Amino acid sequence: MCRFRIKKLFGSPRRISIFLFVLVLLGIQGYISIKSGSVLFLDAPRCTPKVDRNLTFGINLPVDNRPPIITELASAMRHSWKAYTNYAWGMDEVKVISRVGTHWMDASLTMIDSLDTLWIFNMTEEFNRCRDWITTQVNFDVDRDNSNVFESTIRLLGGLLSAFHLSGENVFLEKAKLIGSKLIVAFNSPSGLPYTNINFQTLHASLPSNGRIVALSEVATLQLEFNELAMLLQNASIARPAANVYRILDKVNKLSGLISSDLNMYRPEYSLPSTITLGARGDSYYEYLLKVWIQTGKKSDWLRNEYLTAVNGMREKLIRKSVPNGLTFVGELHGSRFSTKMDHLVCFLPATLAYGYLHGMPADHLELAMNLAETCFHMYNDTKTGLSPEIVHFNLANSDKSDFYIMRLDSFNLLRPEAIESFFYLYQITKNPKYQEWGKQIFRAFNTYSRVEPAGYAPLLNVQSEVPSYKDKMESFWIAETLKYFLLLFDDSLATKYDLRKWVFNSEAHPFPLHSSGTISVIQDLYNF
């Protein structure tokens, strides 16, 4: 604890008064005023956050004793990182076919998103080079109106917080405080829901061109990151605006606990459950209900009940079995019409259900997770390349056709992580080797069809063509999530250090430690309503 004895240090009452006066001045100077001043950030934490520097993360097996798949993964990571360093250093993303970098938010996005992956792959030199660049070059001050609040929170804020926890380097916490102080401005809206975009220089927050609609996932996948920053700084005001989103969503119309993926920004309580999906625009709301409940000490009855009600609603309204082989899948609702469409993004759900089971949710959640994970595997296994398309449609009628079909415009693969994420969670909980076998098969398909020379991995345009054609962008989540989850799936000693009873991964696969009750207490009351 941060303790001192004023009287012993300073003696006379006059000296004490002078000391306290100076403290007040420094305190005023140390606050960052956010826009209207509705939220204040302390310039430094009250106490230095405790980081266990004795933890050693990374591939620890001697090279000669590594399973071949670990060596292959290390090669894939270096091949991917080579593309970024050679073609796009300091930029947001890399085009691996054109061999150039691109800007989106001018925030070194891929670099920050990749920090903890570099760390666990033991790429120390590369990690340190990133740290030095971030220290001097990253200030989140570019005049650009399209910096997405959701993506910035899960990738940038989340990446910095995770890098701080793993390395103990204070620069990452300082940069997390800086971007957090800017992102929080987005919550200054009439309803309290955050705006979609923010300009890091002017702090002007805005909606996209459609004007009034925000995505459920984008307003409700911010809480883990702001909670983590608030706990590190022991300042509840940092987490309050994000936590307040749940109070707003509590008043929104629901269908068996499920919420429309499109919300009215200005009158969210009048949003009708018109489109309900666990794919794009809806997915991570449900993930964060569970994870925030766990992160905040499992004390919030509202979070727990909303999550359980939503899972029951999924079973009732969205989950079906395909024909002819009875694959369990998650469809969508468009008004009263059921659609058999399932995004690859929905493959996050087995991981979430399994994580919930590990933390005390019902046993049938694990059974559902295993059934859905098998479906996700078939989305890979049943294509010509062994890679999943972005979207599939399942068959419900009696048919001699396959369980799902792929529309031509949906046949691309973006190097997404969700299936591998779920295999990692399920392997850690069940120890069933089939999840490693599935992962190995999928990784080698990526190596066959998406690896490009001289560096990088490229998204496939058509998973049903064995002659690859590519989309010209390596998404940052390929390194931040997909390769990380592959390594955690196969390296048992490394996965043990990321014990799922002691860590929570954000939606971008950035791990945060689960804190003690004393640390959690600063934010716990925000979720009791």
UniProtKB/TrEMBL annotation:
It comes from Hymenolepis diminuta (Rat tapeworm). SUPFAM superfamilies: Seven-hairpin glycosidases (SSF48225). GO terms for cellular component: endoplasmic reticulum; membrane. Pathway: Protein modification; protein glycosylation. The lineage of its organism: Eukaryota, Metazoa, Spiralia, Lophotrochozoa, Platyhelminthes. The active site is at E151, D283, E390, E418. InterPro entries: 6hp_glycosidase-like_sf (IPR012341), Glyco_hydro_47 (IPR001382), Glycosyl_Hydrolase_47 (IPR050749), Seven-hairpin_glycosidases (IPR036026). It comes from the Eukaryota. The keyword Disulfide bond applies. Its cofactor is Ca(2+). Belongs to the glycosyl hydrolase 47 family. This is alpha-1,2-Mannosidase. Keywords: Calcium, Disulfide bond, Glycosidase, Hydrolase, Metal-binding. Its EC number is 3.2.1.-.
